[in-house]
Design a protein that fits this description.
It is a single chain. The longest helix is centred in the middle third of the chain and has 19 residues. This protein has a domain of about 200 residues: TIM Barrel. It contains seven helices and 15 strands. It is of the alpha/beta class.
């Protein structure tokens, strides 16, 4: 990027233009690292018709806006101290506390949606496929619940039809990078390539644009990383609910998942759910139905763009 000062550059959503045609190795190792442990600390794990909006989803469509890319940022002047996302649970059904070293919203980053009504925003991290995602999509379709799927390039490459189905059934498909690295350990150029190459591959492999939301792998980030993502037009999404679900060899029981949601749900919650978890697969329908009984509806992260 040029050093011409922080100069906004508007670019239409059809971004064939970024021309990040890199020689990306196709054989990336299946990525099994992401999420947080039972105490909210970061973990280290190495439908209707197209565009449906179900009646009880109370989802609002947000008109796609022009993408704004900022060039010329002096990234060397921005702190690159590595932070690991954490949050503090609240069992009174109020918003959880979170990392407060600095205000992440200044960098277009959120861990919950700032609403007061009973509304939740379901998100899944998809580093690879473990045989459950099709059933998860079935349940979401049956319950009329929209979700956001944060996918790696590996997931897209190995599951093109599933990725297309996500888009066709009204879900967001968002950026979880190419190789799932700790972003602050990479140069700014390498971080940009992680995002741009993944989104370019998404368009080439599926015909669909990637939705411009980014979840930092492993929950590791810095002010520089957040600014880099914002400059590329991304909104960074953390989470306000999570539990140890990413280790396929150390799964909670479905009952634990159901009880966890019952204890910690709160307005504007963004739960982090891993698609590789059998417990999530087995509990999801009950979780969604129980939340509805509590008066909850389900929104889309696009509401953050309003």
């Amino acid at each position: 990027m040029t050093q011409l000062g922080r100069k906004p550059k508007k670019i239409l959503r059809t971004l064939g233009m970024l021309a990040v045609v890199m020689a990306v190795a196709w054989g990336y190792t299946c990525l099994k690292n992401s999420g947080s442990d039972q105490n909210g600390k970061v973990g280290t794990e190495s439908a209707n018709e197209k565009g449906y909006l179900a009646e009880d989803a109370t989802t609002q469509e947000v008109t796609e806006k022009e993408r704004v890319i900022v060039e010329g940022t002096d990234y060397d002047s921005i702190d690159n101290t590595l932070y690991g996302w954490w949050f503090k649970r609240n069992d009174n059904h109020e918003a959880s506390g979170c990392q407060d070293d600095f205000d992440i919203t200044e960098y277009q980053a959120y861990y919950r949606v700032p609403v007061s009504e009973k509304k939740m925003y379901i998100t899944f991290d998809c580093g690879y496929e473990n045989g459950y995602t099709a059933d998860i999509l079935d349940v979401l379709k049956e319950e009329g619940v929209p979700a956001a799927f944060f996918v790696t390039q590996t997931f897209i490459r190995d599951n093109v039809d599933l990725t297309k189905r996500m888009k066709e059934e009204g879900h967001l498909v968002c950026n979880h990078t190419v190789t799932h690295p700790s972003m602050p350990s990479k140069s700014v150029k390498e971080q940009q390539d992680e995002l741009l190459t993944c989104e370019t591959y998404m368009k080439e492999a599926t015909g669909y644009e990637m939705d411009l939301f980014f979840r930092p792998p492993r929950g590791e980030y810095s002010k520089r990383t957040l600014q880099m993502a914002k400059d590329l037009g991304y909104t960074t999404i953390f989470w306000s609910m999570a539990y140890l679900d990413y280790d396929v060899n150390n799964q909670p029981t479905p009952e634990h998942v159901i009880e966890h949601f019952a204890k910690y749900y709160h307005p504007g919650a963004i739960p982090l759910i891993h698609n590789v978890s059998q417990a999530n697969h087995d509990a999801l329908k009950t979780v969604l139905q129980n939340l509805k009984k509590e008066g909850y509806t389900f929104g889309t992260l696009n509401e953050l763009l309003q």
